[in-house]
Amino acid sequence: MKVAGLFSSLALALSGALAAPSAIDPEEFSLALAGRALPNAPDGYTPTNVSCPASRPTVRSAAKLSPNETSWLETRRNKTLSAMKDFFGHVKVGDFDVTSYLDKHASNSSNLPNIGIAVSGGGYRALMNGAGAIKAFDSRTNNATTSGHLGGLLQSATYLSGLSGGSWLLGSIYINNFTTISSLQTHTDGAVWQFGNSILEGPDTGGVQILDSASYYKDIATAVEDKKDAGFDTSITDIWGRALSYQMFNASNGGIQYTWSSIGETQDFIDGNYPLPLVVADGRNPGESVVGSNSTVYEFNPWEFGTWDPTIYGFVPLKYLGSRFVGGSLPSNETCVNGFDSAGFIIGTSSTLFNQFLLQINTTSLPTWVKNIFTDILEKLDKADDDIAAYDPNPFYHYNNDSSPYAAQTELDVVDGGEDLQNVPLHPLIQPERHVDVIFAVDSSADTTYSWPNGTALVATYERSLNSTGIGNGTAFPAIPDQNTFVNLGLNTRPTFFGCNSSNLTGPAPLVVYVPNYPYSAMSNVSTFTLSYNDTQRDDIILNGYEVATMANSTRDGNWTACVGCAILARSFERTGTTLPSICTQCFSNYCWNGTTNSTTPTGFEPTALLGVKSSGAGALMPTLLSAILASGVALFALV
Ligand SMILES: *[C@@H]1O[C@H](CO)[C@@H](O)[C@H](O)[C@H]1NC(C)=O
Ligand SMILES: *[C@@H]1O[C@H](CO)[C@@H](O)[C@H](O)[C@H]1NC(C)=O
Ligand SMILES: *[C@@H]1O[C@H](CO)[C@@H](O)[C@H](O)[C@H]1NC(C)=O
Ligand SMILES: *[C@@H]1O[C@H](CO)[C@@H](O)[C@H](O)[C@H]1NC(C)=O
Ligand SMILES: *[C@@H]1O[C@H](CO)[C@@H](O)[C@H](O)[C@H]1NC(C)=O
Ligand SMILES: *[C@@H]1O[C@H](CO)[C@@H](O)[C@H](O)[C@H]1NC(C)=O
Ligand SMILES: *[C@@H]1O[C@H](CO)[C@@H](O)[C@H](O)[C@H]1NC(C)=O
Ligand SMILES: *[C@@H]1O[C@H](CO)[C@@H](O)[C@H](O)[C@H]1NC(C)=O
Ligand SMILES: *[C@@H]1O[C@H](CO)[C@@H](O)[C@H](O)[C@H]1NC(C)=O
Ligand SMILES: *[C@@H]1O[C@H](CO)[C@@H](O)[C@H](O)[C@H]1NC(C)=O
Ligand SMILES: *[C@@H]1O[C@H](CO)[C@@H](O)[C@H](O)[C@H]1NC(C)=O
Ligand SMILES: CC(=O)N[C@H]1CO[C@H](CO)[C@@H](O)[C@@H]1O
């Protein structure tokens, strides 16, 4: 799919018809930059030639962690140790003295717990429910470090992964200097996270973005056109990623100069002050239009883009994406390129299913002439290819020729991280090299008729891991029952632990704490298709997400935080030969799936709010809307 030339007509029409405000005042721009990741792209959105470092970038094998990650982990471990001590200062595990335990084993950090958090896809629903969980896990949230709460889990974590809607959450946090959810929930006009303005209309005038809808479209069109003019393939995902940036990044002009790799160059990240962010996307095989369970799963970490899968089994320096690698190295006649990894393009890549939202421009209150021009452009796009991000040049061109289905492709097609049904980004966290002990898997998928999760994402990851000599490539994952069992046994109505008994695993694998979206004080099963939320709806769903993670501040189970503590410590206890405290035995009998199944077809799944709905802000999904939209042919949305 090429957008070649298509944008010039839009840009021209818009700039001609409007006295659009001129470019941002440079002084205001530099002031607006304080406190974020780095605006280090050489030329805005346009990938640009730069001189190569003395040691030219190469693709490396996925056999090990990158040297960057290995050295960063050493720094991070000290930070997670002190954060865990703080966490267990208010999270009591019976009368077991966790602080002394951690101190006793501090000299051998591989004995200490290694925590991952994964935030699923599912559009704005996943963004908001995931945000509620992250808010609950964050020690900086008011009252989160009091009894019955889980503040400090985020600070204790080594990894935080997100895909699709979950990647918007990661982008919002990391590109904005690891900001808090509370700060993203401001009520000021023009601030970030103003979901009352649909992404189709663009940001409110005023505030950091200072744009009206027409200049919003003009700016997006110009950015994407410039990339095209520089000789790079563009797709609808480029437009989508730019649009997302205006909503997620607190920087003027949609943070056009912010790269994803700049996270790795941010001082607080270098100092190990927060977890390693991992964004997941899928590969679409050449000649295939459906992304199957054996598709390649990519990760974007702050240093690299690539995959652990046996297909490619390699990683390329993220900062140098856009350079013409051949067989894993950069030929001497080729130059280095920077600026391809625009932060918005990365989260846009992870959420390509949603670029279809752009097709709903007619539902907005935009002036008809803006709609007409945009419709005109969209109609010229090749619809069949709509949902890809074009990684052209393919950084893995002629790399691992024998195993890679992509080796002969000059372009790599990358799609939404949930398209292979693994809608919770567990893949980077189950890589044996990372030695993760426990994953908090926050699932906001819309699996059931009324948009609640039913374990489909975990089933997909489990099934993939069974092909251990093939696509699973040595990853192990706890046994997961079928979705009917999830619903019949209520495993999707409260947190459930999988893989408690490590001797029943096919290899080293984390304990998975499944945290499904469930109604407490709001009906948080909002439709994947709803594009705008006022602040009340937004805050209600975030609060509900907080309650999902804390089981309503432990009012649903007074032992909940102790049980979270037990899940964190379980694998560490095994390594150090520590007897399980009796509270943990009790927790595991309550929360661990014990192998029971009931695969009969359930009658339906329609939970009501456990605490009663506090406000009418967050309405439940209307099935009629769902059918109408499905009938209109975007059935893929049902998956996320
Ligand atoms: C980012 O946030 C940290 C922690 O709040 C703060 O110390 C630091 O100064 C901020 N960085 C910038 C560049 O503002
Ligand atoms: C990652 O490691 C490479 C090689 O050791 C080094 O050149 C590069 O600067 C590192 N990247 C960052 C962002 O620290
Ligand atoms: C971690 O902490 C230990 C003990 O305080 C210290 O000796 C070590 O240098 C620290 N390591 C890093 C990488 O900061
Ligand atoms: C924190 O707890 C105090 C005391 O219970 C309460 O008054 C206050 O509203 C709480 N703040 C938040 C943000 O929940
Ligand atoms: C994925 O599976 C399909 C059918 O099961 C097969 O045709 C295809 O070649 C497989 N792709 C890879 C990369 O293994
Ligand atoms: C570099 O050399 C290769 C092989 O001769 C050629 O295909 C490619 O176009 C050259 N690249 C540039 C930038 O000239
Ligand atoms: C918007 O509505 C017009 C007029 O009904 C129609 O021609 C056009 O195809 C629609 N655009 C989109 C993107 O659906
Ligand atoms: C579970 O979700 C899948 C879609 O992810 C759906 O096809 C299936 O019918 C659902 N089953 C139950 C029991 O909810
Ligand atoms: C296992 O994965 C390989 C590709 O890695 C694929 O060809 C094969 O069909 C898969 N087997 C099953 C049972 O899914
Ligand atoms: C133990 O492993 C077997 C074989 O993989 C599996 O069928 C069973 O469900 C597992 N039990 C639990 C509790 O995970
Ligand atoms: C927010 O939206 C909900 C649902 O549409 C509506 O009931 C509520 O009145 C709105 N609240 C505000 C403050 O606009
Ligand atoms: C554990 C395992 O099977 N690793 C394999 C992953 O894929 C690469 C590339 O095919 C193999 O070299 C590894 O042995």
From TrEMBL:
Q: Which InterPro entries match?
A: Acyl_Trfase/lysoPLipase, LysoPLipase_cat_dom
What are the UniProt keywords, alphabetically? Glycoprotein, Hydrolase, Lipid degradation, Lipid metabolism, Membrane, Signal, Transmembrane, Transmembrane helix
The UniProt similarity line reads: Belongs to the lysophospholipase family.
Q: Which residues cross the membrane?
A: 620-639
For this record, an example GO cellular component is: cytosol
GO BP terms in the entry: glycerophospholipid catabolic process
EC code(s) of this entry:
3.1.1.5
Which SUPFAM superfamilies does this one have? FabD/lysophospholipase-like
Report whether Lipid metabolism shows up as a keyword of the record: yes
Main function: Catalyzes the release of fatty acids from lysophospholipids.
Q: Which domain of life is it from?
A: Eukaryota
- What high-level taxonomic lineage is stated for the organism? Eukaryota, Fungi, Dikarya, Ascomycota, Pezizomycotina
Q: PANTHER family given for it?
A: CYTOSOLIC PHOSPHOLIPASE A2, LYSOPHOSPHOLIPASE
Is Hydrolase among this UniProt entry's keywords? yes
Catalytic EC class: hydrolase
Signal sequence span is 1-19
Q: What is this protein called?
A: Lysophospholipase
UniProt domain PLA2c: residue ranges: 51-598
Question: What is the originating organism of this protein?
Answer: Penicillium cataractarum
